[in-house]
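FIELD: query
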Amino acid sequence: MNDAQKTLARISFQNKIYSKYGLEFEHFFTQIMNYAYKDFKQIKPQGQIGDRKNDGYIPTQGVYYQVYAPENPSSGDTPTKAVKKAKQDFDGLMKYWKAICEPKEYYFVFNDKFSGVFPEIEKILSEIQQKHKLGKCKVFLAKDIEDICFSKLSDDQIQTIIGFIPFDDSIDILDYSIVSQVIGYIMKNIKPINLQNWEPPEFDGKIKYNNLSNEIKSILDSAYYHCGTLEEYFENNSDFARQEVRDRIKSTYSDVVKDFINRNIKNKSDHVFMEIAGKLMPSNSSNNKQQKHIQDAVFVLMAFYFSSCDIFENSPEKKL
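FIELD: result
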């Protein structure tokens, strides 16, 4: 799949996550796991005794999965219900399955719909791990399922899971870039600067080394204070999403630098910076007011990857 197709596939995957709960989500999860791990076994409920608190496992490794997919994972009583289910399900699993295959790892699969995990769930799983001396005992979120789907499944398998994705140039007329998704998230969720925890970015050396102007420095300094919004996005999304964004930013920087190598212009680095910003702007932005907000979100992205040294050269003293 090319970049646009990957992003379309990811959008379709997330729509599946958002729309499924209960048994429907469990079947969605186990279908992915069956493709990803040849030794994975889905447990079919048997009459009144059910599945003995085991929705699926990898017997060769002693790895167990138990699914919890409430219709609304953000409701007020969800943490209490989730904690109760995690404890009761593991107790039930141990009573029956320990004699068949001793648990070494236990994953509580929680469809958080990319909203994150409650601390109470983390706490009870930590207690279970310590009590039963498990190698791992963790919550398994929507972002983790997405990572498995896009890192372990073939294109054909992904299409079987999420439905048909067009494999031609017709989708290029719209901007389906994952960068556009991230920009949209930043625009909707950007927060005021927390002046109490204000810490200036250490950009001076890198700014000087790359011959960037004070005007660009001001843009980066201002945008940097909103990078927490981007970190929030990455925390609640898959490693696949983080890597795709990073790859797009780095390739854009590399392409722009190559294009500017033989140009004899003043303030070349400033032009490179603004050219990157222009290339990251979604193609469907309309009015000037909207474009200003989009540009501000693009600058947040650039400040984040400027700080991590994925764009522009790091100063020699930072490399030591």
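FIELD: remark
The radius of gyration is 23 Å.
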